[in-house]
Amino acid sequence: MNRELEFMFVDCARVWIPDAEEVWRSAELTKDYNNGDVSLQLLLEDGASLEHKLDPKTKNLPYLRNPDILVGENDLTALSYLHEPAVLHNLKVRFVDSKLIYTYCGIVLVAINPYETLPIYGTDIINAYSGQNMGDMDPHIFAVAEEAYKQMARDERNQSIIVSGESGAGKTVSAKYAMRYFATVSGSASEANIEDKVLASNPIMEAIGNAKTTRNDNSSRFGKYIEIGFDNRYRIIGANMRTYLLEKSRVVFQADEERNYHIFYQLCASSHLPELKPLKLGSANDFSYTRKGRSPVIEGVDDTKELSNTRHAFSLLGINESYQMGLFQVLAAILHLGNVEIKDRDADSSIIPPNNSHLKAFCDLVGVTYQDMSQWLCHRKLKTATETYVKPLPRLQATNARDALSKHIYAKLFNWIVEHVNKALMTNIKQHSFIGVLDIYGFETFEINSFEQFCINYANEKLQQQFNMHVFKLEQEEYMKEQIPWTLIDFYDNQPCINLIEAKMGILDLLDEECKMPKGSDDSWAQKLYNTHLKTCALFEKPRMSNRAFIIQHFADKVEYQCDGFLEKNKDTVNEEQINVLKASKFDLLVELFQDGEKAISPTGQAPGTGGRTRLSVKPDKSRDKGSKENKKTVGCQFRNSLQMLMDTLNATTPHYVRCIKPNDFKMAFTFDPKRAVQQLRACGVLETIRISAAGFPSRWTYQEFFSRYRVLMKQKDVLPDKKLTCRNVLEKLVQDQDKYQFGKTKIFFRAGQVAYLEKLRADKLRAACIRIQKTIRCWLARKKYLRQRNAAITIQRFTRGHQARCLAKFMRRTQAATIIQKYRRMYVEKKRYRQKQAAALGMQTILRGYMARQKYQALLRAHKVVIIQKRVRGWLARCWYKRCLESIVYLQCCIRRMRARRELKKLKIEARSVEHFKKLNRGMENKIMQLQRKIDEQTKDNRSVSERLASLETSHTTEREKMRGELTRLRGYQEEAKNKTNQVSSLLEELEKLKKELSVTQQEKKTIEDWAHTYRNEMEKMVSELKEQNGLLKTEKDDLNRLIQEQSQQMTEKMARSIVQETQQLNKELNEERSRYQNLLSEHRRLEEKHDDLKEHLASSNVSKHGHRRTDSTHSSNESEYTYNSEYAELEEGSRAAEDVTRGIDTSLTLKLQKRLTEMEQEKQSLRDELENKEDQFQRARARDDAEFKKARGAELEYESLKRQELESENKKLKHNLAEMRQSLLRDGSASSAAPGSPAYKVLLEQLNASCEELDVRKEEVLILRSQLVSQKEAMHHKVEQHTMTEPSVYAQEVSKLKDADELKQACIGLKDTNRCPRLVRTPLEVSDLLSRLRSAAPDLHRLNEDGELWLVNQGLKETIRLLEQQLQAQRRTNDSEVEALRSELQSVKEENNRQQQLLAQNLQLPPEARIEASLQHEITRLTNENLEVIADNPTASREARVIILRRMVDLMEHLEKQDRTIRKLKKQLKVYSKRIGEMGAGQAEGQTSPGQMVDEPIHPVNIPRREKDFQGMLEYKREDELKLIKNLILELKPRGVAVNLIPGLPAYILFMCLRHADYNNDDQKVRTLLTSTINSIKKILKKRGDDFETVSFWLANTCRFLHCLKQYSGDEVFMKHNTTRQNEHCLSNFDLAEYRQVISDLAIQIYQQLIKCMENILQPMIVSGMLEHETIQGVSGVKPTGLRKRTSSIADEGTYTLDSILRQLNAFHSTMCQHGTDPELIKQVVKQQFYIVGAVTLNNLLLRKDMCSWSKGMQIRYNVSQLEEWLRDKGLMTCGAKETLEPLIQAAQLLQVKKKTDEDAEAICSMCLALTTAQIVRVLNLYTPVNEFEERVSVAFIRTIQTRLRDRCESPQLLMDTKMIYPVTFPFNPSTLALETIQIPGSLNLAFLTRV
Predict the structure, then answer these.
(1) pTM of the model
(2) Which residues of 520-537 are buried (b: 16+ CB within 10 A; e: fewer)?
(3) Quick one: average pLDDT of 196-220?
């Protein structure tokens, strides 16, 4: 290593040292290196110490290791130190840790085979890379393909992609993905799906050219170069394939663990198929050519399925079934030929046993005779100048000849397939340019290397030379472009090695010369090589131990070649007689394979055409028709010529390089073997690229990037306005050696290691700044801590001293208190001791005296008790004798009773059984008992009420008694009169006696009833108590059951609610999916329509001179929808129609599929609607059932109330009758009374009267309660009637409700009663005024209200009145409607008459005054006559009245005319007077003036008399021939900007609908149909013409939606008429139902919406990545890392760079444009949601594909940008539109970049936070996370594994990227317009003067 960086070898510096196992090993210096040291002290990563000896000769130091922030870079040239260990380590980190298989190395893409399927090749990834710069995205094969495609289109130069690598490195897969990218991005220029055919060639070539090797399961055993042709619009038009050096020897021999070509095993695995039975195949182990490798099966590969794919590819390329079976016959014949056993006849000859089954099968399959084939397999014909000999062949030579024939047949078959694949990929369209994809073998070296390896390595030498020259050329161009001095870079030139191989007298020349020798051999050829090159060429060597081998020093390594077989393989000879036998075959395909000079027939039946292809190369077999000498070219010569043509082709194109690396030999996923990797890196030229870059200036920075990155190394005074000068000054100060850098025009170039040095200076500066900041912060924190501690100490001291003072004071107080306590304590003790002694003396005395007294008492007591004991003992003895006698008697009684009890017990058991049965029977009586209990309660209530009534009667009697006493004193004066009425009193007394008797009987009955009730109550109380106990038990059980039922019902309710919610969510999800599918079908239909129109235009322009357009019919809608109507603009000629028919047949199958899918969708939609209707019907039925139950219960209540009311009325009648009789009896003449007023009979009579009066008062109160109930029912009925009719009875109900006074209520009730009783009112409706007058009329006394059932009559009358009112209002409504219609017709006639009058008036004004009056009279007479005739014709009986009216009008007119004449004469006089005065004032000019009379008599010019404005109906009339003009002015030539700014939003939609209304009004179905069809087609036409203009698309989206809303609003459907005014409801369509047209226009609106989203996406797409990711909204947060050769887009906001403000301005423009156009607010929300989804999806996709964007600082930038977008939503009031939720994945990805990523807790937090991200996206972000500064840490592999383990159970899509093409299903919520149609004015700027307002 160069010693220029010795100053970097300091303590802790990291270096690379060689290692036998890992190739390179990392170590760290533990001691600074000083100049002159012979060793370095190192510390390895495993902790071991090592002393590294330096080479004493070179003194080269080990390689320095790059900073950690540069490890894992996308481009190896971005590394500061460019050397082998840095490259190897960077690839290993990206491959193993980050799972990234692609890495740039300058212009080379390094691809490492992961041996695992990765989700990075989908269509979403292709779309993400399409249109991107190569350096803006992470390395990928798609990026290389995009760069080639872009350069082809930009530079008009052909391109080549060179894919190389050793077997198993993934060359074929890389080439396949590159072709897939071209096929997806470019599309095809025709309907032949050429891109599918290009991709279909891959499985064919893999089947016949790929095989399993020890290194690869699908190794390509040939080289191929595919040219993909493009037209001038850069769409694929065809392809061509060239193949190189097929490994024919594999057909007959395979090494261990290898296989023959795949096609053989596919046929053997599918031998059971019926069509393959004739091939007589079996297992692969049955054939010699397929079992030599002893590995017939590849794990995970189904050969049967692969054959099916191969056959499908053949069919797609036009090779029909017959040719396919022919190919399979040839392949099967080869297998059978390999099984032909050849035996020795003798030493010099061989023989094939007769009837060999395999040979017979071979002959049958290829159509040759068995004898000829067996003859020439064992013999050979030799020709001399004069004779021909047949020579037998030994067995070994015969076997070799058989194998040579097999190889030759397979090679012919291979070339035939390649030729016909090329024919299928040809096209007649002229090729404009092409991109070539070279999939060729890499450098190979094995233990035994033969002729194939020699050719392969020769080709790689040529390719490596071309690669070196190209890299050197790019370096030179870069230096010259930047105008910096450069010196010639020394790089390895392999031209001497190429000369050794291909020059004159080179290896190939000597080989060809030896092949021409009659007795040439491999040994003689080896000797010639030794003699020629051993001493003259340093690259040629001879092995020490061999004379049959040679060594060549290739650019990658030394390779030893064995000379055995070189001559035979180079000559490639086949027995000519065997070929002649095959040419004479009856099998046409085999004959075709061996045709040399004739053109083969295409398997598709078409003659191959050359077309317009222009190629830069020629096929190797181009010179077939030359002489036989040319046909004898050796394989080496052919290969050299074809290789030279390939190099010429590559040199004529711009090359792009892909180097494939095989990471290990065991095919283990993501396992990196450093030894194998570094070997391939050396062989493929990657390290050579690094060396060339390192020799110059590998690190390159723009001035802006350098300034942004290293601004921290500059002082304020160093910053100048000129950034270039600033960088120059700073760099001169930082790097003293000016040879380490160069200043270009736009960039600064650095030598290797200088960027690392600058990074070290930057890191040191930042570290010093951090230390200074830490020092200051720590000082501030320490001082803050010290101040807090000082203040705390002072506070503690203060509190401590205070505490001590308080403790001293407390001690002194306690000492004094203790002294006092001691004094009193001592006094108390002495006093207590004295008292104790005194009490003890007294106690002793007391005890002694008591003891003596008790002794004396005890003696007396014992004597007394002895006497008692003697008495008791004697009595006890007597009682004992008595008890024994008694017990004997009792025992006898017990025996007798026991006997009787046993008998009784049997009876009781029987009774017990019967009781249990009785209890069982009585359990069913519980309900009856409950009913009896209820009756008891009711009776108790009645008894209580009766007792209360009796009490009230008693109180009333007492009061009445007092009154009667007063009355008695008053009646004494009438005693004399009462004497005269004794007779009457006697009768009353008799009646009173009867009443007394009845009362006594009643009292007795009452007493008996009360006694019975008392006994019954007692019995029932006992029974109830027993039942209550049982009821209590039942209640507990019932409560338990109820609780269980409630719990179960609650659970069921919750379960049903959850299921309903889930089902609703599922239905909504399915509905959205169905909408999305339907709208996708609409977009596909639109795309096919556009393609169809383009094809029609193309065919019309090519075949017909007269252009036209006619839409074809479709069966999409049953009604004559937009798809079934033909455009009426023009018609095509016959030729155009024929061309259209041809075009129509192209997409028939696709159209049928779409129609079928649409039918299925409609069926599903109908089923969903039916299900919804069923649920609604179920809900309605349940609701109706609930209403019926409620009405039933309400009816039962009303019936109960009516019965109660009837009972009360009947009782009331009885009481009133009794009261009336009593009053009459009292009011009679009392002269004949027989009792005095104060007699007892009189008092009883008065008491009865008082009781009757009180009862009457109670009945009155009940009547009032019933009346209030009736009033409430009446109000409820009025409310129902009001809701039902929705007419004027509410006014009347308000009038009735105003009758709040009692008198008014009384009058109302009586009026209603009279109304009910009047029979005439049933026949004739009652007027409202009469009704109110009757309600307010006078009525009798309130007490007579209930007579004869007045309340019932009132109720019935009320109902009848309501019914009559309803009938009257309905009749009045009908009459009003008829009157309105009549008035409308009359108004129309009046309008017409008014127009005629105005026309006549205008004509009359042009006449002379004399004729004017006569004309007006004549016109009036004519008009009156016409009216008279009309009246007579309509109604002859009214003609007389009409004549009278006419005469009166004529008289009035004559009088009016006379008045006008008088007025005119008066005005003439005044005019004369005024003219005279003017003449007097201007006498000098009197001669030139005219007289006033002349002025009057002259004809008057027409006067513009303003008309009175008509009543506009909101319709526009146009003539049928003006329809095209209407469409042209209103749609095709309308400028949206002027309409949106100056006119009302949606004006074109309103105008079109008003025209449609007039057509509907006239019942003109043809006009309606043509207008709608023309409108739809014209909108489609304008969108096709200006579909990329957002303003136009937004304008027509708003107008289409408004037109759709108008069709709904004025359709007459009640659903859409809720928000209409009365006038708007009058404007509804009356004749046509346009429901299906609404669906068609809705589909059109969906298509316009999708076009709007597409247009908006095209505008936003270039802004999103730059504004959301690359631009630094927060300046200085994210640093710029060093970049490689492929520069990324700068994140610095240069002029023309999009920023976040650009996105916000564009969003504002979108929003303001849609608002100006009057777009529905709900639709604007959906558009904004889609906009934000696009922003979030594109940003996240780019974040997932760009490693440099996954950093902590970039996460902060993204979150800030998202917050700005949310602020924009908040300002526009769109937070509820769902746009914020679409940004949730991006927000979570930004949070993921910023959260901590170390522990398991962090992993759990990430899993719970990132719910909107998939597992693949989370792992991808973690893998791509890259520190920008040294202070950040990388994410460990273990942490990523933890995340994957935790997210393993997630059920989600494995897709990595979000679908940026996804469009949310759009809906158009109904938005009625408040604008009245009659108020709309049509501006003149629209040029619609031909429209007439109606």
Answers:
(1) 0.60
(2) bebeebbebbeebbeeeb
(3) 84
